[in-house]
Automatic annotation (TrEMBL):
GO terms for molecular function: uracil DNA N-glycosylase activity. Keywords: Cytoplasm, DNA damage, DNA repair, Hydrolase. Excises uracil residues from the DNA which can arise as a result of misincorporation of dUMP residues by DNA polymerase or due to deamination of cytosine. It holds the Pfam family UDG. This is Uracil-DNA glycosylase. It catalyses: Hydrolyzes single-stranded DNA or mismatched double-stranded DNA and polynucleotides, releasing free uracil. The active site is at 76 (proton acceptor).
């Protein structure tokens, strides 16, 4: 009997939105099965893994490769049950917005002259072509970073490279040291890279606010003849 993440992987492979993503070596060469089996072993051992297995691949399903216009990379899912749902930074919990997301949305509101959104669910962005991909697609409840070395990083490397190679014009919003390491993978002759510090309040340099990534991304997309992102959430 297969575990829940292995089952979710099989469902992802069957999803029409996964057609291009599943050609990545991570999915085609067996790495995905190995990572899924490792996560399933943790679940079998009694740990609670987040997000729920059926939401692990949400970022790739909601944003097929041929629709990517913007890339935002996160670290790993929120470790509190009910918060994460498969999209980097996105939040469905019932408490106050997480600090980093609150910083992101405050910058968006100020940048675009919009009210601060009440919702933290970024699904609306993903459906417009914003790939919200975490460095690790799973985490254990109460243990942030627990799965960062499980092998998910291979998927992120390949996804960034695939977007750079296959899409004509994409904005890469790389926030924080971990995300900025991927800048070297991006073909800057075709794509726009906007780097900034991490939106976390623990970022002592405070070099995220005021960078206006949302308006800059939309202006560039318009220059390329592409529909800009409607960043509103409410």
């Amino acid at each position: 009997m297969t575990g829940p993440v292995t089952q979710a992987l099989a469902a992802f492979r069957a999803d029409p939105g996964a057609v291009a993503w599943r050609t990545l070596p991570f999915f085609a060469g067996g790495a995905a099965e190995r990572v899924a089996a490792r996560v399933d072993a943790v679940i079998a051992g009694g740990a609670q893994v987040l997000p729920p297995p059926d939401l692990v691949f949400t970022s790739l399903v909601l944003t097929p490769l041929d629709r990517v216009k913007v890339v935002i990379l996160g670290q790993d899912p929120y470790p509190t049950p009910g918060d994460a749902h498969g999209l980097a930074f996105s939040y469905r919990g019932s408490r106050r917005l997480p600090a980093s997301l609150r910083t992101i949305l405050a910058e968006m509101a100020e940048d675009l002259g919009q009210p601060m959104p009440k919702s933290g669910d970024l699904s609306r962005w993903a459906k417009q072509g914003v790939l919200l991909l975490n460095t690790a697609l799973t985490v254990e409840a109460g243990k942030a970073g627990a799965h960062l070395k499980f092998g998910w990083a291979e998927l992120v490397d390949e996804a960034v490279a695939a977007v750079s190679e296959n899409q004509p014009a994409v904005v890469f919003l790389l926030w924080g040291g971990s995300a900025r390491k991927h800048a070297i993978q991006v073909d800057r002759t075709r794509h726009l890279v906007i780097e900034a510090g991490h939106p976390s309040p623990l970022n002592r340099l405070r070099d995220f606010r005021g960078t206006r990534p949302f308006s800059r991304a939309n202006a560039w997309l318009k220059e390329k003849g592409l529909e800009p992102i409607d960043w509103r959430l409410d």
